[in-house]
Amino acid sequence: MDRDHTAPDRARPAGAIAPSTVRAVFAADGYRLVVWLFLRLLGLIYAAAFASLAVQIQALAGSEGIRPITEQLALAEERFGALRFLHYPSLFWLNASDASLLTVSWGGALLGLLLAPGRNDRTLLILLYGFYLSLFHAGQMFTNFQWDYLLLEAGFLAILLPGGTKVAVWLFRLLLFKLRFLSGLAKVISGDEGWRQLTALQHYFETQPLPHVGSWHAHHLPDWLLRIGTGGTLFVELIVPFFFLLPRRFRHAAAWLTILWQLLIIATSNHNFVNLLTIALCLFLFDDRAVSRVLPRRIAGWALTRSPLPAQPGRLAAAIGVAAALVLVPASLVSAAEMLGREPIPTLSSWLERIEPLRIANRYHVFPSIDTERYSVQVEVSLTGQDWVSLDWRYAPDDPRRITPFIVPHQPRLDWQLWFVPKGPVFLRDFETLLTRLREGSPAVTRLLAEAPFGDQPPKLFRIRVYRYRFATPRERIKQGVWWVREDQGPFWPLAELARR
Questions:
Q1: Which residues face 381 on adjacent strands?
Q2: In 88-165, where does DSSP find H-type helix?
Q3: pTM of the full predicted structure?
Q4: 172 & 239 share domain
């Protein structure tokens, strides 16, 4: 006789979920499984982002780092006074020691790992957001990137998910729409010829910050295929996002196309965790019925017992979701309008500035322009001025015989910033401070190098030259064993005097 699923199942373990409930969820267009799966992925991404910062944060913001956080806090207190906590929200107001930086970094990584299988989601999510926001401000130029904004905005929205409503789901869809569409829009309005003439990918793989082996292979694809890839990128960023807002069949197609594009980027670029987070955000274009088709039934049933999203959300959760939407949606629209108009909107920009330190409503413009040539600085050091040795960056291209390894989801912040040095003055002050710290023998900064040039003895003299790099051809790769071919462009004049100080 068939079991009566309306009757209690006395043999079912405590906390287990009825098979009929699992089947009902599989047939519904709810988001309990979606939310559960997203939070697990977000926990892993958080853990990777925190761990990546943990091995660098002392060199970036420590007492002997390039931009010590104690100096940043002193400037914030001098400028903002009693309002400093609003303009510079950070846990490091309590303690700004090197130990605190490491505690927050490794503590965040641990919290992310706890979130991955955890149940007390909201508490963990609040802590994770607060920890990463603190490190974001501590890192200054080194953490001022689109992916840091994205993780903070997604992390803030995730706080609304436990016990939340479909409003939170729609806010995540809005975030994904902003990320993709504004990135495409930025490419169009930048006036960059590479995007207009569909030649961007003929240069992008070679000139991006930290290309790996996949980048080298992609660079040597036929030009016609690279043009198709450039046009495809514009299509995926400008057209596909509008399908996010349509009925489920269109959303699903848009999600899979977006996921495919992110996987192609991962295969050809070292872009830390941003592509993984974008893939995770695509979950909100699906529903439980769609997720159940790829998630094993046993795992789905186990997940439902731990999902932070109830079958019927409470009134308080619904009110919080609506309140967040009333702030975030207008802020996103104003931010996009300012980006399109290329100037602030006088009556509204001050409102955006008030919430900007929280990074909960951002604009996105990933790679709006593409360099056609790659220039890199090479630092040579000496103890006496007689024998000069080149600094060996851990990840940034230097030795033509080596290429950056595949390091996703890690982002080496210093090596990434070195990409900006030949472009202009944006990173020049920090670059000079970096060399000063190396001269002083800062252990934290020296550890960012692949190898200390003189062991425990810090270098005394520096000279900097600029090189133009290009990928070696397949023939050059086979005959000479090199990944890069470089040409000496002469001294790096902004810091040409450094060797004589």
A1: 389, 462
A2: 98-115, 121-139, 146-159
A3: 0.91
A4: yes
Q: Tokens 């400028």 appear where?
A: 79
Cβ distance 214 to 267 under 8 Å? yes
273 and 192 housed in the same domain: yes
Closest listed residue to residue 36, CA positions, set 309, 399, 317: 309
Specify whether 404 is located in the same domain as 452.
yes
Q: Structural domain of residue 399, as residue ranges?
A: 374-500
Tokens of 331: 């802020």
| Residue 88, both tokens | 């510079």
DSSP-assigned letter for residue 273: T
**Neighbouring C-beta atoms of residue 112, cutoff 10 Å:** 25
Q: Which residues of 141-155 are buried (b: 16+ CB within 10 A; e: fewer)?
A: bbbebbbbbbbbbbb
Question: What's the DSSP call for residue 270?
Answer: -
pLDDT band at 307 (very low <50, low <70, confident <90, very high): low
Q: Which two tokens stand for residue 164?
A: 């939340």
Crossing angle of helices 32-54 and 146-159, in 10° steps, is 140
Q: Is there a single domain that holds both residue 286 and residue 399?
A: no
What pLDDT digit, counting tens, does each position of 117-126 carry? 876 688 999 9
Query: 257-260, long-range: CB within 8 Å, 24+ apart, which pairs?
Result: 258/176, 258/180, 258/282
pLDDT tens figures, 352-381: 788 889 999 898 988 899 999 999 999 999
Kindly tell me the burial class for residue 354, based on how many C-beta atoms sit within 10 Å of its own C-beta (0-12, 13-18, 19 or more).
exposed
